[in-house]
Amino acid sequence: MNNTRLRRMTAAALFGAMAFVLMYFSFGVPVLSPFAEFDASGLPEMIGGFILGPVGAIEIITVKLLLKLLFQGSSSMLTGEVQNFILSASYALPAVLYYRKHRTKKGAAVGLLLGTVISVVMAVITNLYLIFPAYIKLYGMSWEGIIEICTAVNPWIRNIPTFVAFSVVPFNVIAKGVTSVITILVYKRISTPIKKLILESDSEIKDNKKRVINNAEG
Questions:
Q1: Residue 31 phi/psi, 5° resolution?
Q2: What is the CATH number of the domain that holds 100?
């Protein structure tokens, strides 16, 4: 394993650890539903993904979830962690892949918008067919009971379609929107020193090759 790869893996691990720590500072958004909970773990995932690429983004998400399982375990037979991975990847990967082809501020913004749209769609699918079915099975709940709990804090929620329209969609749009705006604001300041550190070994290798060639020619 060369020095550059080692530095990239170390950076991914550090970003993943940061994402895990930020999961501890989550807070509920009860105005939408009692199940809506926001944390800023997407910020290091996105910034790290922009720096390290799509593989780096997946590594960061994986480290975050492994640390979560190690220190907190799972209360949903891993369905929550599976959803977290799906939503994180569906947000980060489209943005990172688009940004790699359009390395401008506009390109980053468009990529983040694309990732937001895809992750919102995936949030609807995973909530309806993964998370809440798991809660129903694990905790003896029912869709009627879930809707009743949500109606108590958000009277616009009356059934599954309104639960999606007035809780799942707006929450994920707001959460990803906040993360996207912060990413745009801080990315350049943070990425420059990190890129310099990671890519420093690349320049060192090139310089060493040039020295070897020059010495051989001399």
A1: -65, -25
A2: 1.10.1760.20
Q: Which domain holds residue 58?
A: 3-28+36-195
61 dihedral zone (left: phi>0; alpha: psi -120 to 50; beta): alpha
Encode burial over 52-70: b for 16+ CB neighbours within 10 A, e otherwise: bbbebbbbbbbbbbebbee
Quick check: is 117 in a domain? yes
The answer as to whether 50 is a domain residue is yes
pLDDT in tens, 158-170: 999 999 999 999 9
Q: Is residue 144 part of a domain?
A: yes
User: CA torsion angle for 55, 57, 58, 59 (degrees, to 10)?
Assistant: 90
Which residues partner with 27 through β-bridges?
38
H helix count then E strand count, the chain: 8, 2
What is the Cα–Cα distance from 50 to 54, expressed in whole angstroms? 8
Contact in structure between 64 and 23 (CB atoms under 8 Å): yes
Both structure tokens of 16: 């993943």
Query: Is residue 48 situated within a structural domain?
Result: yes
Taking the model in full, what pTM does it have?
0.86
**Number of compact structural domains in the chain:** 1
| pLDDT tens for each residue of 64-73 | 999 999 999 9
Give the chain's largest Cα–Cα span.
82
186-206 pLDDT per residue, tens: 998 888 888 877 766 555 445
